[in-house]
Structure formats: C-alpha cells, structure tokens
Write a structure and sequence with these properties.
globular, Creatine Amidinohydrolase, alpha/beta, Creatine Amidinohydrolase, Chain A, domain 1, five-stranded antiparallel β-sheet, 15 strands, 400 residues, homodimer, six-stranded mixed β-sheet
Chain lengths: 400, 400
C-alpha cells in the first residue's frame, strides 16, 4: 500500500520485532507510554496524551491499551489493533491530588493476572510517563521489577519499512511546500505571527494535486514553526512574536511537513536584501559542510564518520559546532519530532543501515547572527537520499 | 500595563506566593518542570521543553534555571528573571542511554551547596519531568527527601492578577475570531485539513486592528484544532483527516485563542444544513444546562454547586454527563491548556473566588453524534464573565 493507513500485518511485524528486543533485554512485559510508540504499534492517534495512557505489552498474549474512559470509547476510530478491549479509567480519576489513574490501571492488570514476578520495562525518558504513573505502578504491582527500557521501541523504529519511507517522502513534499510558502511570504514589514499563519496553513493544507494526480494532505507537526530572527537569530527554539520583518535582516526558519504523523523537518535561512559578509561567509562554509556530511550518510558508516566529514570542512573555515549535527526521525508527536535514539555526533558509533532516516541540521548560532540549513534524508548506498526539495543555499530575497 | 510583557515586579510577587505555599507545605526547595510554571515565575518561553529543564526554587536566594546549553545561552531573550546565571548542561548529555542531563544538574546544585538535608518538592504529574529526571535527582542528592508537590505552583496560578485577566481577554478575542473563521470556512466538500489550515492561520494571525486601534497577535495554542465530525462526532480529542465535510453532517469544533501563552478555549457545533431532530434536541438541552451552570459560577459557590445546576437541567431531559464540566485555565504549553487543579464536577469543593478562570465545556458525546458548546470565563460576582464572543447555540449553516 503506497498511501493510506498502515496495514494490520505491518503492525503485527512491528510487535514481533519489539518482542524480540524484549526477549534480548530479558523483559517479561513492557509499559509503552510515548504516543509515537503507541501509534507505531497500534495505530492509535488522538490528542489524548495529556492524561495518562499506556500500551501494556506482555511477552505473549494481546497487548492492552489503557486510557481515560472518554478516549477509550473512541479508540477504535484510529487504533487498528488492540481496540476491542481498551481499559478506560473512570473520569473521576482525572487530575486529582489524592489518587491517580495508574493506581486503577495497576489494579485492573492485577485482576487480569499480570501482577506476577518478572522484569517489566518502562519508558523512563518518555514525556508522557509521569513520575506519579511510575510510582503508582511500582506500588500497585510490587511483584514487578521495574526496568528502564532505554527507548526499546524507539530503537525498533530506527530502520523504516517501505511503507514508512513512502510516508516520509510525502511528509517531505509537505515540508518543501511549506518552506516555499514561507519564503514567498517574507516581505518588508510583515509581522512574524502573520508569517507563522501562512506557514501553519501550508503545513495543514499539504500539497495540492500535481500533474500525476497525487496530492498529500498535511497533518499537524510535532513542533510549531520556529523563527530565529534579528537579535534572536543566535537562539534556537524561539517561537514567533509580533515583531515585523524588516529589509536588511535575515531569519532562520525551522519547520516540518507531517503526513499521518510521519515528519520531515526542514530548515533554511532567508535574507531580505543583501546579507552581511559574516552571514554570507558562514552560509558558504555551512552548506559545504552539510554537503560533505550528506555524502557520508551511507550504510556501514557511523554518525562519527559523518561528523568527521562535517568537522573537516568547518575546521578549514575556523569554525566549530558544539551541538549534534542531527538525529533520527520518523513518527512524531508534540513536543518532538526526533526519535531519541541515534544522534549525529562524534561519540555515536551506531552502524548506519539503509532506510534509517535522519534530520541533518547544520545550525550555526554565532553571537547576534546565525545560519541554519537542514535536510531530511534516508540512508542510501550512494549517500543521503534527500526527502525534501528546497535550494540548499542562503536564500536571498530582494524586495521590489 | 495593559498589554505587553509581564513586569518583573509581578514575577516577584508570584515567587513570594509560591514560597508562602512552600512554607505551608514545609518544603525547603521546589523543582519546577512544567513549562507553564517556569513561564509563570520567570517569563522564560521557548520550545525547549522536549529536553529536560527545571527551575530550582530554594526557599531563600535566587531561583536557578537549568537547561540544555544551547537554550541556556539564549534564555535572556525571554526570561525576565533568573537569566543571568543559567546552568547549561553540555550537549553531549542530550538523548543518551548511559547518562542523563539531570545527573549533571544534581552535581552542579551539590557544588553550589544545595544538596543538604531537607524536603524538596517535585512535580510528579508534570509532562516534562521524566522518571529518569526524578531518579537522577534522587540518586544525585540522597540528602534530599523528595516530596510530591501536588501541583503547588499550579494552585498558586489559580486566581489571576489584573494583568493576567487582560491577557485572557485578549486570548478570548483571538478565540472568537478563529471560531468565526472556522464557521465561515465550512462548506460542502471542503476537506477537514483545509479547514484546519484556515483555523490555525486565524489563531496565529489573531485579531486585526479594531475601531479603537487595538489589535491582538496570536500565539500558538497548546492543542491543535480538534474536529469531531461524522461518525467520529462521538469521540473527543480526534484531530483532523483529509475527509470532506458534506452537507447534512454536523461537526463540533474545539479550539483556543492564545496570546502571550494565555489561553481561552472555545467549542461550538456547526450543522451544514438542517440538523437531525436528535441533535437539535441535544443542543437545546445542553445550552440550557450550560447557561444554568454559568449563572452559578460566582465567588463563594463551589464546582459542586455549578455541577448541580447543570445536572438539574440535564435530568429534565433524561440526559447525564459522566465527565467533568470544565477545568481551570490560564497559561498553557503543549499538550494541555488546562491548569490541572480545579475541575468542575460534583466532588470538587474548592470555594470559587473572583478572577479564577475556567473553560466550562458542555461536551455531550452520544452514539454516532455529539454536541459541544463551551465558554472561557472569569468568576465574577454576578456569575460567569464570558471572555469569548460567539453565538451560544447550535450554529446552522445553510449551503447556497
């Protein structure tokens, strides 16, 4: 299937790979809380992750979804697996100081016979597995030895299936279209929040039907568009203000295209009018470094190899980058489109395989100015297979 | 100050109120991780909460921000307090299986003399205080007795200052404008993702200048627009698909206006063409119930009183609602615009005070259809002071 929903068969394959990893880690069960991991295994997709929810994966038998009753009743609308028997905790347990939904979940798992001695993994760095959830399960099932899963499911997600690569390519098309809109909208005097309005609309709209008759609808990205503008051009992760873009300034734009929760992020820097000599020089070095890095992104190499190629170029320009050059991508839910596994940096020795996917982001934040350029890519035999389509340069836009 | 940034003096007052609550809870220090709480106390505002960050608040002395070095260097761009000496943990600690940023933070706090015996509060239900953060601090500062804070800062946020009420009113204007755009855009055959595009653009754009010369720029809402459409009209928290809106169907829309991180959510249900008799009847009962609830939202009453007024109306129509009727609102960061303190339900006995603010949401999800209507309100002597402006009815839109 080239577009549309993932098949149940693919979900079953994913579960088997997760269980294989569980056997290697000697886990009898796994508590999955990261919404991207729950989506990966079940297809479940709703903005319900602000109240506690888990997918409980025993080594054998059917995994069990547990979430707020209000959400459990509708889980079958998106979940392709495990929606027949969702544990819905009562509404009265939501946001209470004196008890917690996971107290109830632990009790029901006990009634179903799962509170037996064994090693049970939990996602210790997931955003939506709160300390109170952890403590409630620890106290509610003292038979369990709770073990940090070390992103077990995230690591299984690392190499993408053909279906997933198709989804990532479509996300890349949405990203390219959103960046094209952003560049088009930049003009002297336009407030940044109006620019954000145009970019977010483009992200949701997606790509209109092309000559081949294919269109791509946009999903919501895990992060809003980020604009590094003016004095703040040296500060990543700022969102927008109502400040007005003025001629002579430059801005780095970081955005993603999303399609069915798969993400392709993309960063570019736009100068409205002629850039400063410093920015022009920085842009040239950074793009050259990125090109060198992308060429090394092939099976058998490591992130350390990729980083070395980048560092060698930068060193020739007396530049260095302290932060990582990229990270693994795929499914994303707020607040992050990264997979939290492989980082492109000198001390990561993961051996790259075909169909791993990365956001390679060359972000250089100097004092008072900065330059960002990035690509979402697939690891391929000839080096990076780029999923997006935007000029890989400092984009200079002249006002009329 | 009517618009613009909060003053340092107001932040200092907030800190003093938090410390008073700490003294009452016998806490010697508090680890604040909820981005809304960090913003409330410091003004710090960036999309950096996907890596660990805290505000460490000792009972005396200057609170300490700790975050990723990349973000720490730019903290002064938004933080009005505590930006002079931000602890920036090294990039190499980001997303690693073998160590964790909070190991480093605990060590630095120790070097600064804070690892002394005492009761230290942590936010056990915050989304961005992961179990690994908790365990790293527990092991790194064994002198501390870690104590669940039970949303201490969130409770301090409950009654809004005049400045905050002004921000909430402006957020309400953005919400009203976004809902007006949503209703305008609904037409036969329009895909839901294109509707989302229009709504998100309106949310970011905000309100154009009015006759009085005031405009309101839109910030990003903590939750994307949610559309309960067609078969999914009985399921809250679904986001959009590329399905097309067709004549004869109805949809509930839940969105928020945001301004400087303050939120005013708003829900309405729109029927394209004549509604079914079931929906029309449900809408009438629900609006009557909401009106009765809003009249009771005044100082001295409790959420239980408000809920009783709502229940009495519903009972006359043989209807009931199992989930809560609303919750406290104010500052919001993804994934939630609620404050996680007071809920409007029968077992909440908090005594309402003037300038508490709530999202009162009458969501009735039946089988195969549903109706939502909500208001963002301020508790006032005469009952709810409504911050938004949209017709409080089932909105019936005729196609041409």
């Amino acid at each position: 299937m080239l577009d549309g929903l993932v098949t149940g068969a693919e979900l079953d394959t994913r579960l088997e790979r997760v269980r294989q990893a569980m056997r290697e880690a000697e886990l009898d069960a796994l508590i999955v809380a990261d919404p991207a991991n729950i989506f990966y295994l079940s297809g479940y997709n709703a903005w319900s992750f602000y109240t506690p929810q888990i997918l409980f994966v025993p080594l054998t038998g059917t995994p069990i979804l547990a979430m707020r009753e209000m959400d459990a009743l509708g889980a079958h609308r998106t979940a392709i697996r495990y929606a027949d028997d969702v544990l819905g905790y009562p509404e009265r347990l939501v946001h209470r100081p004196d008890t917690h939904p996971m107290v109830w979940v632990a009790q029901v798992l006990r009634e179903r016979g799962y509170a037996t001695p064994g090693r049970v993994g939990f996602e210790g760095d997931a955003h939506f597995f709160a300390v109170r959830s952890y403590l409630a399960l620890r106290d509610g099932a003292p038979e369990w030895t709770l073990v940090e899963s070390r992103e077990l499911v995230n690591w299984v997600r690392l190499v993408k299936s053909d279906f997933e690569i198709g989804e990532m390519r479509r996300a890349g098309r949405v990203a390219s279209e959103a960046m094209r809109c952003a560049v088009e909208l930049i003009e002297d005097g336009r407030p940044l929040n109006e620019l954000a309005a145009g970019v977010m609309a483009a992200q949701a709209r997606g790509v209109p039907e092309d000559e081949g008759g294919e269109s791509v609808d946009g999903d919501y990205p895990a992060i809003v568009p980020m604009f590094l503008y003016g004095d703040g051009a040296d500060t990543p992760h700022l969102t927008w203000t109502a400040e007005r873009f003025v001629r002579g300034e430059a801005m780095s734009i970081e955005l993603a295209g999303a399609h069915h929760r798969y993400h392709a992020p993309l960063a570019r820097t736009v100068s409205l009018g002629a850039p400063s000599r410093d920015l022009d020089r920085l842009a040239g070095a950074t793009v050259e470094g990125l090109n060198a890095a992308l060429a090394e992104l092939k099976p058998g190499n490591t992130p350390a190899d990729v980083t070395a190629a980048w560092d060698a170029v930068l060193a020739r320009y007396d530049l260095e980058k302290k932060s990582r050059l990229g990270y693994s991508i795929g499914i994303g839910f707020p607040p992050d489109w990264g997979e939290r596994t492989v980082s492109i940096r000198a001390d990561d020795t993961t051996v790259l395989q075909e169909n791993m996917t990365f956001h390679v982001i060359a972000g250089m934040w100097m004092t008072g100015y900065g330059f960002e350029v990035s690509e979402s890519v697939r690891v391929a035999p000839g080096g990076a297979d780029v999923l997006t389509d935007a000029p890989r340069t400092l984009i200079i836009k002249e006002t009329p």
